Amino acid sequence: MSDDQPQHSPLAGRRVVLGVSGSIAAYKAVALARLLLERGATVDVAMTTGATAFVTPLTFASLTHRPVVSDVMELDGEQQIAHVELAEGADAIVLAPATANLLAELAAGLVGSAVTAIACASRAPVVVAPAMDAGMWTHPATQRNVETLRGFGHVIVEPEVGALASGLTGVGRLAEPPTILEAVERLFARAGDLDGLHVVVSAGGTREPLDPVRFIGNRSSGKMGAAIAEAARDRGATVTLVAGTMSVAPPRGIHVVTATTASDMREAVLRVAPSADILVMAAAVSDFAPKRAASQKIKREGGDLQVELVPNPDIVAEVGEMPDDVRPFLIGFAAESDDLEANATGKLRDKGLDLIVGNVVGGPFDAIGSDENKVTVFGVEGPLSDWPMLPKRQVAERLWDLIGDRYRKARVPARPRTTRSRRR
What pLDDT sits at residue 251? Predict the structure, then answer.
């Protein structure tokens, strides 16, 4: 690493509090502390009592050349309460590893350790990297606590799948230090980079009624669209989510428009698109709908059922044809079972998109309903990225890095928008 690299890092000159809890993965926090230091950050370490059973405070003190706080009542060198001083002075708080117990305390606002006391007393952004056994991670209480922390605005670096301390293999392994570092750097690099922009995201699937109780739909969960909307919110955008059927709750702090059918979604998108700076069409809109929906429940005694389907309007293509002065920067999605590049780039060209996000459905990388996704982003010049399978929130962050950069380049000089209304 060159001598001048830290000054170009968004962490240069930042003060980061690293909170370590009692997990066998605590040894990775040592590597994370070193990475933060190499990027130019000042690192203060706070530890729970359980954490000191895995790594000694002396290890961190020797590395950071700063005292380690492990007692909520501890005083610093100036006889100030140490956890209060760290909470007030932190530019960011990183909790890694975060055990199931730590997540529960944070979600409930309990301050049983120096780590939770700092996190609760500070108004700095918080990055949480959980680590625990697979059963603990998937337990409904843990997932509820994680969602609560997301609602607080905390960034969650999802645990990875791999060998666990129990000897089992599953999800719960602490993300690798470079992955956590990337999340911390993005925290500063992206802060406010969408401020002042109105972002519209469509998410979920649509349901086309066949009769009063049946419908034609798809398996879309809406998780990817929700992650994209949440990430845009955290970057300072005003966000409108056009929500189809979703298996997850919409993120807090955004405006939600419900759209059950393709027709509903078309109406909602065309209504809000002219006030949008960026439109991300992540919804899986049904391509076809029954020509006629029965007014009464269809009985099986009638024998074979024949349903005539008609194509639904192509919403993203309609937006792509809008005049330049009202057309938002437009991103589409393409879920394909084969020939991803050919099909995705064809859609990008035919529908007038600025970017398209492609992913393969079926096979080992089928992301429908999953918490992870593997995508390739295409521009008019061809593939721009081909990321590995990642948690959908991480995919969303990388997408916004790319979308934001392309949007700014496309809007220089910026097109006039002074007469446009904007939802706040």
Answer: 81
